[in-house]
Please model this.
Amino acid sequence: MTNVRKIDDAVHAGGDVIDVLDKGFVGLDGAFASDLAVANGARVSFNQASQELTERDEGLIRFLMRDHHGSPFEHGYFRFIIKAPIFVVREHHRHRAGHAYNEWSGRYSKMQAEFYIPDNVRTQVGKPGAYTFEPVDEETKRAARAEIKRQSAEAFAAYERMLELGVAKEVARSVLPLNMYTTYYWSCNPRSLMHFCSLRNSEFAQFEIREFAKAAETFLERLMPVTHAAFVANDRTAP
Ligand SMILES: Cc1cc2nc3c(=O)[nH]c(=O)nc-3n(C[C@H](O)[C@H](O)[C@H](O)COP(=O)(O)OP(=O)(O)OC[C@H]3O[C@@H](n4cnc5c(N)ncnc54)[C@H](O)[C@@H]3O)c2cc1C
Model:
């Protein structure tokens, strides 16, 4: 099967990829999304359609966003391919409405020894509900990174030892840590993407998922600039 490649290689060959964290990425694998589709999703109410986006259509998009007429923003489709640490994926997959996911299976193939080693090592200050995160000193950062690297390597070695003993992948994987990288497809419509970005490209979101949300939002801005500007003007609230 010569046309089958590892996802990392295939994605980076495709080009439309934003690298995220130390080894992750957000790639746009396909899209069917435009500002014109939003305007026409609303214009059909009057049995009308625009052939190209006019200033009137742009005003209509701003009105729809402001007044929470959300359904015209559902006529689009983004298909991303993501490589992210498992703890980021757990946060991501909480987003249900208008999202679809398919992920690499550790039951069917051997996982790779790729682990997130954070550069942004921080300490948590304050009370629940009002935490802030501040960088640690260099010595603490070095120690934390060394701990994470060592634990990751030890966990992977135990995983491989079990595989060599003939233990099933689905059982052996139970020792693998949350900072292991995995890969998945993520598809969503523009409305669900905006809701995701409002929650995860936010100062309240964890740094790591925020980096992925920022990258995804870049593609929304590129493909649907009028919609994106209206979303930002609407306090980053999805309609
Ligand atoms: C900063 C932050 C901290 C978080 N902390 C925690 C945590 O400590 N523990 C935890 O478990 N989760 C936590 N979450 C996850 C959070 O609770 C949501 O699961 C996640 O943000 C997805 O949001 P959502 O449900 O609005 O999105 P979606 O699942 O995409 O839903 C979109 C919208 O559809 C509607 N909807 C979807 N499903 C239903 C339903 N079953 N019933 C009624 N309406 C529905 C709602 O209006 C919802 O807002 C956190 C999220 C953030 C951003």
